[in-house]
Amino acid sequence: MKKTLAALFLIFTLPFTWAQSSFEKGYIVNNEGVKINCYIKDNNWKATPSSFRYKTNLNETAKDGEMVHVKEFGIGDDKRFERHTVKIDRSLDDVNFLTSSRLSELNEETLFLQVLVTGKATLYYYESGKLRRFFYKTGEDDVQPLIYKRYYNKNRKIATNSRYRQQLFNNVNCDKISQKSIENLKYFKDDLIDYFVKYNSCFGDLKADEVKEDKSTFIVKEKKNKGQFNLSLRPSYRKGSVNVTNFTIGEPRSPKFSDQNQFAFGVELEYILPFHNNKWAVFVEPTFVQSYEGFKEIGHFKNQIDYSSIETPIGIRHYFFLGQDFKIFLNGAFIIDVPISNSELSFAEQRSSITIESGTNIGLGAGIKFKNKFSLEFRYLTERELLIKHQNVSAKYESLTFVLGYSFNLSKK
Question: Which keywords does this chain's UniProt record carry (predicted)?
Fold first, then answer.
């Protein structure tokens, strides 16, 4: 059974290799200013990319989108990057790397910058490792860095060069913006986005929350990830087997019970973690497993097993999005099993039995989910020892399970 399970599990997980290579609708603008609609591999970059992979149609081989050839590219409605030659300070905002110089160490580099807000003033963002920098431009001027730097002063205290506030006061300011709001402005993405939106709304009838509807403007629509609870009803079908080894008597008391059809029903509570685009989740799934009943006669030795239990997988899951409606997932779980209903391994002619005990094992699963409601999962449960306290006898249970699921979102919208 092990080889069959391993082969099935490998075959079932092959689609995940493909899933990670999904391409989203986007565009590129080449050096001649020509806009080309295409499909771009969305790697959910944390760091600002320096290159990317794209296809002009989904059936062709992917090409490299290199900075030297691409002036701008975008994915969907919420990701947009432009190539600019800017001056950047790469000193880290980390107490272990701060210097005693108040001045920014600016060097010229050509980079892709993420567009956060456009309009009369445009806000850009660059991230690489622990480095985070903001840039801006007004009108047709060149892109300028917003200067921010922490450093050690003469007393070895941490001080801050917040020149970006003076830059904004001088160059990105209007009657609706108070001096106090600039003085309190933090060098954070959300704060600066709100500031630039407010500034751009000064030049027209648009309100700050309406700017994104104007075709001449753009505001990055970053998703505010929140944790989410899902409750799933999960009936399942499984093939289970038990192999017994008696180290004292040997083969007559070492039956390999045939595979049995079993049905189970579980209730899963899943929590979607509020980071990495909601791709990670943890779950717990108490499951009642129908009785496994086996009988095998070896010579005049009659071996019988009756085993039902409550399994509780506690695990972690990773999702791969295939589009708006479909996602596939991999999960692993640590399983705690508690036998019920007088579960035992018995020997008829001796009128004796051994009580099956609680045990643990590992579950490995792969599946697909549709519209965040319906799911189908294949799960392999590794061998679980049923007679932990008995040194002379071993009984190992393993199974292959197919699980259906129907989910309810418990989190408030």
Answer: Signal
